[in-house]
Amino acid sequence: MKEKIVVTGANGQLGQELKKISNSFIKFDFIFLSREELAIQDSEAVNTFFDNHKPKYLINCAAYTAVDKAESEKELAFQINGEAAGILAAACEKNHTSFIHVSTDYVFDGASMVPYKEDFQTNPQSVYGASKLKGEELVLQNNPSSIIIRTAWVYSEFGKNFVKTMMKLMTDRDGISVVSDQVGSPTYAADLAAAIMKIINEKKWVAGIYNYSNEGIISWFDFAVAIKEITGLNCKINPIPTTQYPTPAKRPAYSLLDKTKIKETFNIIPPNWKKSLAVCVSHLQST
Question: According to the model, what pLDDT value does residue 287 have?
Answer without folding.
Answer: 85
